[in-house]
Design brief:
It is a single chain. The protein has a six-stranded parallel sheet with strand order 7-6-5-8-9-10, sandwiched between helices. The chain has a four-stranded parallel sheet with strand order 1-2-3-4, with helices on both faces. By secondary structure, it is α/β, with parallel strands linked by helices. Helix 1 (3-27) packs parallel to helix 2 and helix 6 (140-157) crosses helix 7. The protein has two domains: 3-103 and 328-349, no CATH class; 116-324, Glycogen Phosphorylase B (Rossmann fold, 3-Layer(aba) Sandwich), CATH 3.40.50.2000. It contains 14 helices and ten strands. It starts with a helix and ends in an 11-residue tail after the last helix.
């Protein structure tokens, strides 16, 4: 993440890309399965199309949110688009692309089976206390920007009479757990001189889904983790912080098509949490940039920790949104993609011509 990091690794990345292009030209695959990653995959698609290789794309780039001009590349190069969010299929089909909603793989995963008592014993937790999961992101920069305010919020909640929350912090495989614990020590020394109270006890764990499953509520940085939280079904609040300039640029860039009903908040921000986009309405709070404060987090979290109408309504809304991530056929998403690959291979072998998409 960041310009200097990209520049430093650019020679290696480009060398690997050229190796891949050479391999495609040498081996000429029978079919290509491109997964997300538009910055590289659109370039590969050009080489594949020149060789007449059928292309199936699984997990759509978010063309429906920004850079919609790249839709022309999908129309030109992609034979089958297999999408994991229901509104994406309608978006593509209305624009001449052969698209199919196959369901989200996370929605088909079984819920964790470990009991609360077993989980508490494994991690040294008190099962009588409320557990709050914090998912600040999977990169160091995200954690540095998001975690401190999350911790201040839980510390403030623990100052309230009769409430003691313990914190579960899943550490992504991309992050050094020792570095994360070092951040706690730095933050704890700083919080000793703050008005938020001492930091709560923080337990690092290695599985986000299980932490979300056993937590009373969660604070989740915007991204794939919000889909994990949606499919688990416990209440959560979405947060994120970027530079003011980046936020202003993104605010101008993001525009949703008619297939995604979305209303701006009081600051003119469109929803970004996938739970809200899938539901077609705001079912989880979003605290972005200047709204992302400990005080606002406490106000959003408090009703989700107790037995309240707000908690009950969110749990019901999340269950409804999760159901929308399941295909009507009930088929496993990965199995359906595999079947589509075979269909594409059979069509190619039979010499069925590719249908050209209409540019819309």
């Amino acid at each position: 993440m960041g310009l200097t990091e990209v520049v430093r690794h650019a020679p290696y990345i480009y060398a690997q890309y050229r190796k891949l292009v050479a391999s495609i030209q040498r081996e000429r695959p029978d079919v290509a399965i491109l997964i997300d990653f538009p910055e590289v995959n659109f370039r590969l698609a050009k080489h594949l199309r020149r060789l007449g290789v059928p292309i199936l794309w699984f997990v759509s780039p978010q063309l429906w949110a920004w850079k919609r001009g790249r839709l022309r590349l999908v129309q030109r190069f992609v034979d089958r688009m297999m999408v994991i969010f229901p509104f994406e299929a309608a978006f593509y089909r209305a624009r001449g692309v052969d698209a199919e909603f196959v369901g989200h793989p996370l929605a088909k995963l079984p819920l964790p089976t470990i009991s609360r008592e077993e989980y508490a014993t494994k991690h040294g937790l008190d099962p009588a206390k409320q557990w709050v999961a914090l998912l600040p992101g999977s990169r160091q920069r995200e954690i540095e920007k998001n975690l401190p305010e999350m911790l201040r919020a839980v510390a403030s909640l623990n100052l309230e009479a009769g409430r003691t929350c313990q914190v579960l912090l899943p550490v992504a495989s991309t992050i050094d757990a020792h570095w994360v614990r070092k951040q706690f020590a730095i933050r704890e020394r700083a919080e000793d001189r703050s008005d938020h109270g001492p930091l709560p006890r923080i337990i690092t764990v290695d599985n986000a889904r299980t932490a979300l499953f056993h937590s009373r509520a969660a604070i989740v940085a915007s991204g794939t983790a919000t889909v994990q939280a949606l499919t688990i079904g416990n209440p959560f609040v979405v947060v994120y912080r970027v530079s003011s300039l980046t936020f202003a640029l993104l605010k101008r860039m993001v525009r949703y098509p008619v297939e995604i009903p979305a209303e701006c908040d009081g600051d003119g921000n469109l929803p970004i949490a996938m739970a809200n986009l899938v539901a077609g309405r705001r079912i989880v709070p979003e605290l972005l940039n200047r709204r992302f404060t400990a005080a606002n987090l406490v106000a959003a979290l408090r009703p989700l920790l107790d037995e309240t109408p707000e908690r009950e309504a969110m749990v019901a809304a999340l269950a409804e949104a999760r159901a929308r991530l399941l295909p009507a056929s009930g088929e496993d998403p990965i199995r359906r993609v595999s079947d589509a690959v075979e269909e594409l291979l059979q069509s190619s072998a039979a010499g069925v011509p590719r249908t050209s998409a209409t540019n819309v």
